[in-house]
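Sequence in, structure out.
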Amino acid sequence: MNFELDEAQREFRKKVEDFARREFTEEEATKYDLQEKYPEEVVKRMLKEGVFDYSNPWNILVATEALCKYDAGMGISMLVPFFGNEVIALFGNDDQKKKYLGRVFSGQAKMGLAVTEPGGGSDVANIKTTAVKEGDHYVLNGSKMFITNGDIADFFVLLARTSVEKKKHQGMSVFIVERNFEGFKSNKIHGKLGVRATDTAEITLENVKVPAENLVGEPGRGFYYIMTFFDISRAYVAAQALGIAEGILERAVNILQKDGPITSQPERVQFTIADMATRIEAAKLLTYEAASFIFNFNPNPAVTSMAKAYAAETAVYVSRKAMEITGIDGLSSSIERSFRDAKIMEIWEGTSEIEKLVIARMLKVGDTQ
């Protein structure tokens, strides 16, 4: 399979990189990291300039990789106004798509995905938030933790339990919950290790009345909708991690070349650079392979999990090695920030351990006797 970008995609990537190079300066990226501030004005400029093309999934992947190459915190902030839209696009009705997605894609609103709960982590089937049907609405109670856009999104695609079933993954449903619904509260989380330009918050729901018309798809099918979304979003997380790793390698090489060509470095440094580059290339091939399955409507969850887990581990590995070989220069540059940004790649959208469980369960190595 050939995963080379065509001419139009290469031109699109250049446009995205030109934007990131201009907007994600070291001064700006450091400011948003230290202030833990969402780059609202930069997002507005991105939308105004039409940098982000959500009509083509390959362009989304390319943009994700390119933006995160320059700075993951700001890069992901450019993408998250649309976070979770696939759930509505795939399973919502026409009215929901028009009312909510129309506002998001026009830049008039931000959305978020609310699944993770305190103490729940990657165990989606064990969520405690409840939704009880009362007449023409549902009453929601519970809390969500580490929610991207939690303190700034206008509405959320939220998973709640609507019935108690023998199997924990059954009896869950998805709702569109607006911030202005009475009883909805959010509390911004401060002091994150990395990607501090993104907004993260805890959400609490106290007798929040959600119109029945805001139920997405069929009741009781929520778990399957969210898992379908993760099959898609994990490819984009792999692209985030890939972009981080590519950016770190480029910056590390630039630092080292101040003292002469890479070939003048000690062999151990050359070996490390070669290993970093090899892992990045392998992560790229896995990421693009996973995306090709998804974008051709034939998702391969095992390959997607391979891509997500390996790209995430590559970002962490490359960032650690870059710090080692660049020394004080790396500690006092954007490599340090990228080192902190890389770790979340192994955690969100399913930890590396969860991804490996998926791979093991789906692995087929031939017929057994």
